[in-house]
Structures are given as C-alpha cells and as structure tokens.
Specification:
CATH topology: Trna Endonuclease, Chain: A, domain 1
Number of strands: 8
Distance between the termini: 65 Å
Order of helices and strands: HEEEEHEEEEHHH
Shape: globular
C-alpha cells in the first residue's frame, strides 16, 4: 500500500504534467495546428500524449514536466519507437523545465542504460531544439513537397 505522501506526490506530478500538456496543446493550436491529446495520457503506454498536424506534417509528443534529468522506462520508449515506425511521424520527448521552457528530444537522441532511457538537462541544452524550431518546419516541408506552391 502506498503512503499518503507518495500518493499526494503522484497526484501533484499528474496534475503538473496534464497542465503542461494543455499548455503545449495551446501553443501549437495558436500556430494553426490541429491537435489531439491521448485519452490515456499519463495512464497507459500505448500512444504518445499529444499528436499535432499541419500541412500534411505531424508530430507526436511524450510530455514530461520535470526540472531534473529524465529517466524513461525502456518499455515506454520502445512503444514510442514502434509508434514512430508505424506512423512515420517524428516523435519527441517534449520536456518542459520550469523557467526554461520546452525542449524537444528525438527518441534517437536519448541515452540508454540497461534499465532505462535518459536525457540530462545538459544534453537537452546542447541539442537545444525548442518550440520555435518545430513551428517553422511544417511550412517548409509543405512548400518543398507541393509543386503548386513551388511554382507560385
């Protein structure tokens, strides 16, 4: 049986995570994306937390709101890798650090140990893929693929 403190901490983490997911959804929606939040977000491991689409381009995000280095279950990351392979959607760990904003880590950029996948604060800053980087990509991808836009 869990102690009351542990249960309270888990509830706080879930609420913080759900609030961060809604924040990210809002940011993409304000930039013209169609957005979906997984019904099992924070509960099941069958799909990413958020999926966004614009101009025939989609991203999938597993969201984390944590101020220290992340440690992710191997099983969850493997499910995300299979999702990425099945859908051909770029899939990221979307990591919100208080006061530092959002960082987006490709699954291939995660470190791997025997027991988990990891990403450190230092490596997130070194990668430095931010929301602005993702927001500008779909328009470019669409222009590159659409022969009408290319000749206009």
């Amino acid at each position: 049986m869990q102690s009351p403190n542990n249960t309270g901490e888990q509830v706080h983490r879930y609420v913080k995570g759900a609030r961060s997911e809604r924040e990210l959804i809002d940011k993409f929606h304000k930039h013209g994306y169609s957005v979906m939040r997984s019904a099992g977000s924070g509960v099941n491991s069958l799909s990413p937390d958020i999926i966004v689409f614009k101009n025939r381009k989609g991203y999938a995000f597993e969201c984390k709101a944590w101020d220290r280095s992340l440690s992710l279950e191997v099983e969850k990351v493997e499910v995300l890798k299979q999702w990425e392979a099945n859908t051909s959607m770029d899939t990221y760990i979307a990591w919100r650090m208080n006061g530092r904003g959002w960082f987006f880590i490709r699954l291939s950029e995660l470190g791997r140990s025997e027991k988990n996948y990891t990403v450190t604060v230092k490596s997130a800053f070194a990668i430095n893929r931010r929301l602005e980087n993702l927001l500008e990509e779909p328009e470019q991808v669409s222009r590159d693929r659409d022969p009408v836009s290319a000749t206009a």
